[in-house]
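We treat protein structure as text, and this decision shapes the records that our systems exchange. Such a record has a labelled line for the sequence and another for the backbone structure tokens. The record that follows is passed on verbatim for readers who wish to inspect the format:
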Amino acid sequence: MSMINRRLRTATATVLCAGLLLTACGGGGDSSDDASDDAGTDEAGAEAEEEEEESTDDAADDVDFSSIEVALIPGGAHPYFQPWQDGGQAAVDEFGLAGYTFNETGEWDQTRQNAAIDSLAAQGYRSFGIFGVSPTDINTTFSNLKAEGFAVASLASCPEGDENEADFCLSTDTGEAAYLAAVAVIEQMGGEGNLVHLTGNAVDSNTQRRIDGVSRAIDETDGAVSLLTTITDIDTDLQTAQHAVSDLLAAQGDEVDGIVTTAFNPAVAATRGVEETGLDIKVIAIDDDSTILDAIREGTISGTVAQNPWGQGYVGSWVLAALDSGACTMNEPGLYVDSGSFLVTQENVETYDEERQAASMSILEDFQNEYLSCS
């Protein structure tokens, strides 16, 4: 089952449509009758498509979720996943699910996470939203769950490679988010200087995508910006990240013009480190911990790229319930959907969450109207 990037497919469709329009505009005068006929056909087709979407949406709205409980299972304890609980509860309250559970007992070990999943299945759970510990092995877990008839989502991270055995993956486009952050900090640096990248677990496929995203932004400067260093494996806990940042600033602080962080704990550590040392280093962080948001308000750092874990929990829970109910099926099993990235600066620090909430509702509508077939 191939993961398909919906955004790229939409962009391709837009280009193709533009080409078709240009071809139509280039026709001779005798094509006016054909154009009228085509317009009428297109209008009828659009109306039929709209009616079909409304029918699917209505069918999804009528599904009874009162017997369905969703299990949200991160790889282990980490601040990033806490909003999953609020999203799951919002889905319970809004859509009438029987409940949800949040289980972070995997302790970042795939075998332990599998044991936690098995335990929940034995308790009667049939809908699983999972952040797999091992991106190379999690497809085996997904396949086993699917073989039992369970609904399965890969949340916040997709399996490594091109195959996703879960029903869908709802995750940040981590490469694009890192690119967005790097472009923003390079702009704050005046388009030149030395950049440091602080990130997470080197073996995580998300980390490699983030490294590639930062590299892409640097390459676009044609040598004006240099990557001083990339420091990985410092997202285990805040203490580890703070130690790495302290060592960096002590040894090379005068050489650093900008820091881009693409993992939670390094983001908090870099924010505090720059604040405490007073060094003139531009920082674009990741996520929206209160320490980071306060630093943006105060002008200590330039901004952050917020992700959408709440939307992953909220939308993911609804889709899992819809699949578990048997009323809906994925049109493209294994589909990848970007849950969104949002650049936060002083200009929008008080309002960015409204944009994120709106994006979550839009993603939900896309599932209801396009990605699912419901009866």
Q: What stands out?
A: The radius of gyration is 23 Å.
